Structure to design on (390 residues):
């Protein structure tokens, strides 16, 4: 049965395949009885000339947002059957099949392909599919994932352009909590808001360039807290230039020989300011040493002899320690020196080569009285990276 006026639900329409410009060209409609595509005619003497009203209905039926014009630069005149003449729409129809016309294939002799109707539809910008969501922007903690898309077709003929702000999307992602790089980072970024941190062993990841994770002893309470212990010396017969940076590295303690000097400069590098602090103390906390400040580029293990720091606070019984940055002894073994903060073999030595000074434990660090062969008890070397103040 032929699809008749008022009883048609919809009839397929299209722009002639000969069009080279998307959204414009000669309009064709499908005759489902003869299974044939044909054109629509609107001769000059038509009682209902083809207008923007009909073009709007046709463009919207084909999925466009409306009509822009009833003319186009279609390069070729169609051939084949003319199926409808003088289509007349009110403008609220959702299909040309709901509009009136003279009847299927009932066209006048005045209808030739010269009068076939054309449309130029508004072409809205169209997006291509979204890319897959990216990996999280961080390897730990809170980050974002993103996805993007590009335009597959630009707007034309007065169509709606794509909003450039709709070309990307982000979503939050939450990974495992980050391992802090230093004791001060752990203190400054509490896992639980308002938590109380005690002195003790914590896990840190000093460098952002590798995945090395170590346990360290943190002083969270004295001198503002956030101090990372890099060296503890208690013995005078275990140290040498080969083990000074890693002795008992996996056994952090404030009471036994232990060194992570290997990571001292990596801890330093986490400072958010241009300076970093270190703390030296011997015999008991807060004595025989002090708190010192150096630039962030200062080598805290291998600085050239004579590199100095700024004294922030000199502890009781500081003596003649001065402000030379702790460093490897320039010539290993001279006067038994392995690591020192002095130019003298008689004081300021932090580590001595195994048993050079048997009466000095761990090394002749503090000059209590001449001849400065002393008992220092324990020597601690701490580093504190500084947090930028907002």
């Amino acid at each position: 049965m032929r699809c008749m006026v008022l009883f048609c639900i919809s009839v397929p329409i299209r722009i002639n395949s000969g069009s080279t410009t998307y959204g414009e060209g000669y309009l064709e409609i499908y005759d489902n009885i003869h299974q044939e595509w044909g054109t629509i005619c609107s001769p000059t003497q038509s009682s209902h000339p083809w207008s923007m009203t009909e073009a709007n209905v046709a463009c919207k039926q084909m999925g466009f947002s409306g009509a822009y014009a009833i003319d186009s630069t279609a390069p070729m005149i169609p051939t084949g059957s003319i199926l409808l003449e003088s289509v007349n729409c009110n403008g609220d129809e959702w299909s040309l099949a709901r509009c009136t016309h003279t009847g299927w294939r009932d066209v006048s002799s005045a209808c030739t392909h010269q009068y076939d109707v054309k449309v130029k539809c508004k072409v809205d910008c169209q997006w291509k599919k979204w890319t897959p969501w990216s990996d999280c922007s961080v390897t730990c903690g809170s980050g974002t994932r993103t996805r993007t898309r590009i335009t597959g077709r630009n707007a034309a003929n007065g169509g709606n352009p794509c909003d450039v702000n709709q070309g990307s999307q982000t979503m939050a992602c939450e990974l495992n909590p980050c391992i802090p790089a230093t004791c001060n980072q752990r203190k400054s970024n509490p896992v639980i808001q308002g938590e109380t941190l005690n002195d003790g062993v914590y896990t840190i990841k000093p460098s952002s360039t590798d995945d090395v994770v170590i346990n360290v002893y943190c002083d969270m309470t004295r001198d503002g807290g956030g101090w990372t212990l890099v060296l503890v010396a208690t013995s005078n017969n275990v140290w040498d230039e080969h083990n000074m940076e890693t002795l008992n590295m996996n056994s952090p303690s404030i009471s036994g020989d232990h060194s992570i000097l290997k990571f001292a400069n990596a801890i330093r590098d986490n400072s958010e300011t241009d300076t970093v602090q270190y703390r030296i103390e011997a015999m008991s906390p807060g004595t025989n040493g002090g708190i010192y400040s150096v630039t962030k580029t200062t080598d805290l293990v291998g600085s050239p002899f004579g590199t100095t720091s700024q004294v922030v606070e000199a502890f009781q019984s500081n003596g003649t320690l001065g402000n030379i940055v702790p460093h490897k002894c320039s010539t290993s073994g001279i006067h038994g020196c392995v690591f020192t903060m002095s130019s003298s073999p008689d004081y300021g030595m932090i580590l001595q080569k195994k048993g050079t000074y048997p009466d000095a434990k761990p090394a002749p660090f503090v000059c209590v009285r001449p001849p400065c062969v002393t008992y220092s008890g324990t020597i601690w070397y701490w580093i504190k990276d500084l947090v930028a103040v907002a």
User: Anything to note?
Assistant: The two ends are 80 Å apart (CA to CA). The CA atoms of residues 357 and 363 lie 7 Å apart. Residues 1-7 have pLDDT under 50 and may be disordered.
